[in-house]
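SUBJECT: protein chain
CONTENTS: sequence, structure tokens:
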Amino acid sequence: MSFFSVENIAFTLFNYPLSFVELVATLFGLVSVFLASRSSVLTWPTGILNECGFFLVFFQVQLYADMFLQIFFLLVTLYGWYHWRKLDVQKNIILISRKTLLILLAILIFSTIFVGSMVTRLHDFFPLIFQKQAASPYIDSFVTTASVIATFLLAKKILQTWIFWIIVDVISIGLFLSRGIYFVALEYVIFLAMAVYGYFYWRKNLV
């Protein structure tokens, strides 16, 4: 059995069989989000390991939109790492206008519909790769597109990134519970607390 299989169990936690790949991805995710909430550039290299691990987990539990999201995260991680290294880590936090925020919300709605319609048909388009139908495709796609927006805002050090992350975390908790990946759901409970903390910490450091 492969180390990267969700069937390869590290240990059982409260009757939940926790796989090695889910454990490693979760731990690095926690570290990465905590560092982001503290405006530390080290959030980006630790995030890479989280993204690789979650890519494997989400593929195996048929959350395909979230799986593809990890590829985007990896690309933005490299950009964010480069961008943050040029900034004063405690400064250069900015706000976007209400008009820009409304545009982002419109993009979120239309992107969710488009991505959801594509993800719904993945098992038809690529049956050899996606042998099972996507689970909760539109909810999964909403989480994916909202996370794309939130990650872009994070890379640009825009305060409203945490508003998007709070929404993503709340919905993700229910989604992951429905798919039986309880340890990841627990991680997102912690992410939610960190996102709230990150919002107030960043707000104190606005330009």
Residues 9-203 form one domain.
